[in-house]
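Supplementary Text 2. Reproducibility record for the structural model of the 115-residue chain.

All settings were left at their defaults, and a single model was retained for analysis rather than an ensemble. We include the record here because the model underlies the residue-level annotations in Supplementary Table 4.
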Amino acid sequence: TYPAQLSEGQNLPDAIMRMSITDKASGNEMGTVNINIINRKVVGKEKITTPAGTFDSYKITYDITIETVMMGMRLPGNNLKGVEYISPGTGVIRNESYNQKEKLTGYQILTKFSR
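Retained model, structure tokens:
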């Protein structure tokens, strides 16, 4: 969630997403994946340019932990970092994912927007 008003230095609530992995034939749950998005903070404002235009955006950083349990066994987890650029009235303009060594591993950008 994002509050209606963002400001630099603001801490945002953590989020948790849980996914179930189900055997299609039996319907039994085989495992779960928990994605924890924590330490969300508005760290500044930036102009971001994408194919959809240039937007005044708030830069939000956060940490991601991924915990997977398959058939009762906990698998090694992943710790990642993320950055989002949010423009009021538009939404997410750019989203970036970084690995444990803080190397960019992927991103999404807004390519088209109409009001």
